[in-house]
Amino acid sequence: MKKRIICGLAVIALAFCGFMGVNQWQPKERSITIVNDNAAALEEKPEFQVAAKSAVLMDADTGKVLFAQEAKTELPPASVTKVMTMLLLMEAEEDGRVKMDDMVTVSENAASMGGSQMYLEPGEKHTAKELLMGIAMVSANDACVAMAEHLCGSVEMFVERMNSRAQELGMKNTNFVNTNGLPAENHYSSAYDIAVMTRELLRHEASRELLTKEQAVIKVGLPGKEKDFELINTNKMLKQYSGAIGVKTGFTQDAMYCLSAAAEREGTCLIAVVLGSESSAVRFGEAKKLLDYGFSNYETITIAEKGETVKKLTLEKSTPQKIRIETGENVCMLVKKGSDHEITSRIEISEKIKVPVRKGEEAGRMVVYSAGVQADTFKLVYAESAEKASFKEIYVRMMKKIG
After folding, report:
1. Is 139 part of the annotated catalytic residue set?
2. Which of 53, 54, 64, 79 is catalytic?
3. Contact partners, residue 273, CB within 8 Å, separation at least 6
4. Residue 79 catalytic?
5. Same-domain pairing of 280 and 355
6. What does pLDDT average to in each consecutive run of 10 residues of the chain (403 residues)?
7. Domain limits at 356?
8. Is the pTM above the cut of 0.70?
9. Do residues 128 and 260 share a domain?
10. Domain boundary pick from 282, 298, 314
């Protein structure tokens, strides 16, 4: 009896220690995975020339730069700006701040936008999805402003969020002044930064449906005066290039012809950005050249799919006691075709886990090595939530072990 009392007191003491414990390993918060050798890749002399002021080719899964030509030069991005606008809208939809069936009222400010547009009128109402389609397919400046005002209350607040998100993604050569890329002083980006935000946009599966849609018909106009308006995607890559995802075209007199293009073949997804080409035909041709180079020379190896269980933990001071650790993203490696590659990985989990934990929170990381050299790291997350166990639960568990 005395032994059981002593054990019980020990359990309570251990419980207090457990609740006061602190993680030894602090997970790194990442918005995007960038491989270590990108700095060198961006400085290397390109293997060939692209007929543009600036260009970059990036692997969408790993963020690895495969080709760079003046990739960090700050240039006007024209309507390619809308990649960030679409990204913020997709993120807002994902976290519930915007629903695709929300009705959005067009303001006078939105209706006054020139350039590419849906010719919206003040007071006209559309679903968020219709306006997103207008942005993705016909580069509608009026739709950009209408959605920015709907989400943040004003264009100025939305632009602030655009710039803060750019900083979060490590876009060091970008500054946004508006939502749509209309000519403005101090509005600039770089081919590399555009590839970074394009990569983040492509993480949202719903965005791909919008970006690959070739045409659609919606009703525009005030009640009683509605008429059909045909949306035809401005990105000719969709019909001209196998596996094309589209993304965004852009043109102004200052920016010249710009393009962020993506394509996927046999599990490899690549992003090609071309800024400052002399004609529309040239920008599409150079993007194809970049993508052809990537698909001809590289392939993707999938190590683990997103959501795959990599470890099961037993936590003495939580309920439930057993929780799974899973991959928070696809674990992939891009390798040169025909090269020898020995891929290995190591799982790193905190030795001391402080409960409660929440499903989806970062739990550790998977470190991937190529030929013994660290190549990348990938986020691991908790597959389920766990709460602090009560003193009674801990006591009962300990008694069962003793018994």
Report:
1. yes
2. 79
3. 54, 55, 56, 58, 80, 191, 192, 194, 195, 198, 259, 260, 261
4. yes
5. no
6. 43 37 30 50 82 96 92 96 96 92 95 91 94 94 96 95 96 96 95 97 91 91 87 91 94 96 95 97 96 94 89 83 88 82 84 84 88 85 85 73 71
7. 305-402
8. yes
9. yes
10. 298
